[in-house]
Amino acid sequence: MNSGYSYLSLPTGLYIFITTSVSNLIYNTLVTQVCSMALWQGRAKRKSTGGRLSLHRGKKRFEIGRELQEVKVGGTTKKTARARGGRRKNRLLRAEYVSITDPKSGKSSSSKIIEVVENSANPNYVRQNIITKGSIIETEKGKAKVTSRPGQHGVVNAVLVAD
Fold first, then answer.
1. I need a surface site. Which of 24, 72, 94, 143 has the fewest CB within 10 A?
2. Do 135 and 116 meet the contact criterion of CB atoms below 8 Å apart?
């Protein structure tokens, strides 16, 4: 195949040969539709001293990040996201229960989340009842500190803290 051309397969089984520039335009359009705002997690353009780095290549699709997944208190809802290699990642959107570990006895049990009491990541998260790692939540068994990353791991794990 010529390097200046590529082909696009249609659902009907037909193939259309198009130029590489049009192919890149279609690919970029599809990527921007999947990610509303592309977050690039590649190497920085500047050194730690402030000098410019000469980039040896452009941005790649595998360097695209994702939007932050904020978990709120409410009925448990999840969604799955495609990860690298076709694997699936469970994203938690709302959480109703938390798996609490008591550090004194070492026992774990499930408890209902009442509200978010404190969140060092963002003070506005307390008002909006958004759970992140490190936030203090009020449960039926008392206050607990979240140890998992709910938006990444798909579960809320916490450790009881002394009142």
1. 24
2. yes
Of 74, 81, 68, 65, which Cα lies nearest the Cα of 129? 74
- Lowest-confidence range among 10-14, 45-49, 64-68, 109-113? 10-14
- Cβ atoms of 113 and 139 closer than 8 Å: yes
Say what the pTM is: 0.66
Q: Are residues 102 and 42 in the same domain?
A: no
Residues 58 and 138 in one domain: no
Q: How far is CA 31 from CA 52, 107, 152, in A?
A: 28, 46, 21
Q: What is the mean pLDDT of residues 13-19?
A: 63
Q: What are the CA-CA distances from residue 139 to residues 12, 25, 100, 143 (Å)?
A: 55, 50, 9, 6
Number of other residues whose CB lies within 10 A of the CB of residue 35: 14
Residue 118 structural domain: 71-160
Average pLDDT over residues 113-137: 93
